[in-house]
Design brief:
Rossmann fold; single chain; alpha/beta; binds flavin mononucleotide
């Protein structure tokens, strides 16, 4: 089973989670400006909130790479929201891509709020979430 990781970040918070997922599942964490070069069974997609939505770069990535995405598993951060599932569900549906209902979401630093987040514990929880998401597929995981 093939796996890839892509993320969008402005201040590095989502990248921290992406690197934790990378350490857990053993494939590189790349930014969304890097297209998928082959079809993957699971795409771990990291994105966060900016003005109550995900960035256009994330939407464009899904649209341009939809033929290579088996399913999306989301992870992300925000100052106050609980999940990026809702905006990403619209994106997934518009592109005919499967989206797992379970995602990982935690606080991300924003100005003076949530300093140091995601922290080590957040990253460990995100890594465990990613491993669980993969274990719910059948077959071995490869790059
Ligand atoms: C321009 C801007 C808009 C934001 N809007 C929201 C928002 O609507 N809701 C929210 O919970 N957090 C919001 N945040 C906080 C970010 O979601 C949070 O800092 C997140 O961890 C940023 O991740 P990144 O460093 O990977 O870009 C906003 C941050 C910025 C810079």
């Amino acid at each position: 089973m093939k796996t890839a990781i892509r993320y969008y970040t402005r201040s590095g918070n989502t990248k921290k989670l992406a690197e934790a997922v990378s350490g857990a599942v053993g494939v590189p964490a790349l930014a969304v400006d890097q297209p998928l070069t082959e079809r993957v069974d699971t795409l771990f997609l990291g994105c966060s909130y900016y003005a109550f939505d995900v960035d256009e770069a994330v939407k464009t990535f899904v649209a341009q790479n939809r033929a290579n995405i088996g399913r999306i598993v989301l992870f992300g951060t925000s100052a106050m929201m609980k999940s990026v599932y809702k905006p990403m569900k619209k994106v997934a549906e518009a592109n005919g891509v499967a989206l797992e209902r379970e995602d990982f979401h935690c606080r991300g630093s924003f100005g003076p709020a949530h300093k140091g987040r995601p922290d080590k514990a957040d990253c460990e929880r995100c890594a465990a979430f990613a491993l669980k998401a993969l274990s719910e597929q059948s077959g071995p995981t490869t790059a």
